[in-house]
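Many introductory courses stop at the sequence. We go one step further.
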Amino acid sequence: MRLTALRPENPVAMMAAYGALRLLPGAELRWADTHPELRWEGDIVQGLARQLPDRRAAPEITALDDPRGMNIGGVAGYRRLAEQIPHEWLSSYAAEVDPTKVAKNDMGIAKTRLLLFSGKHKFVSAARELMDALAKLDLEDRLREALLGPWRYDTKAQAWGWDAASRDDTAAMAEAPSASKKLGVPGAYWLAWESMPLWQMVNGRTVGHGKRAWTYPTCAEWLSWDGLRALVMGREQMPQGEKQVFGVREWTAPILDTNSTGGKELGMARLSRDRSSPNRSHTGPRP
């Protein structure tokens, strides 16, 4: 299936493609041109729709509201969660770090860089609310919208600041983006959420994230979920020649301020060409 609604420039669309791949056992995905292709032995839309009830009941969705240290009880709470939820989810939410490297109220926990909103926003609670709302809609219709388009933007939905196409002029808004839900594409946002295990915390930072931008790959060759994970985690160490052979492209999305309270959103990504760019992110120790 050619996923005609999804383009690599919009971070949430890239994440939706990868989340759909994760949810379908044995599926493969490639991004050979503007839109990705997803192949699977069954009906893709029906296969995804069947996953929603189990995903809503999964411990990584029910065991916590938000992964910030002050909300989970610091390192002790993090270690309790490690006994309840799969490692690939916990290590995408947060990581234990040297307490001197984070703010005091973070209590030795570094949160995912994909948690862009500040204040009272609850990262995981927002996913639960989204799934509950989606279950009340025509789910297969919303998934076809997500994958094939057009995106209608006719339903209030939380996108965590990942949908660059829904950015508003925040100066004209009555509330900060983190305090209100915009009209969005709930099926796409759910699929994007399901890509979270790709974005692991490495050395206390979400893979691909720098201070000002997030860099992520697409690949022209067919990849399984495991293959995609290997690409995301190994992208920075991959020789340029291999990237060219496999059709790996790297996209860099700016991280933009949205209001005076520290909230942020992702902007539209551009194809990365200059590896020496000051926006280039890394997952290793800072120099």
